[in-house]
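Dear Dr. L.,

I hope this message finds you well. Following up on our conversation about the binding site, I have prepared a predicted three-dimensional model of the protein together with copper (II) ion. For your records, I am including the exact sequence and ligand specification that went into the calculation, followed by the structure tokens. Please feel free to forward this to your student if that is useful.
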Amino acid sequence: MRSIKSPLISIVMLAAAFTASAAFAQGVHVDNAWVRATVAGQKATGAFMTLTAKDGARLVGVASPSAGVTEIHEMAMEGDVMKMRAVPELQIPAGKAVELKPGGYHVMLLDLKAPLAADSTVPVTLTFKDSKGVESKAELSVPVRAVNAQANSHKH
Ligand SMILES: [Cu+2]
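The resulting structure of the complex is given below.
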């Protein structure tokens, strides 16, 4: 007598997709991070990147040993003038890339301890909270680039 085998339903284990890579916090992808180079005497600059979180997250903190003060900034109209201002956190909607770029959201590095030369790197730690409020950190080594485009939009 022959038994007919029913198709086996294979159970796919969803292993943790994110390892302890420098550019990943739990569930958050950090891509294309860069910091704008500074000249002697310049005390502030911006850090830019693309953040993606499959299940959504919030960027709740930024720190860097190269800067005395680090803030999350947004651009907003004040009358006719576009100005930047600090915000306590940045929402990363589920599955939607949030671009931090010149003229938009950015990380502000203030009270710089030394000029940031092109082709060097700056350590930056990002702190995220997932949709359940669980905190995770991404330790980045962010390349410094000399980019002059839109320099005017980034004055304090
Ligand atoms: Cu700013």
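In brief: Confidence is low (pLDDT under 50) at residues 5-22, 149-153.

With kind regards,
A. P.
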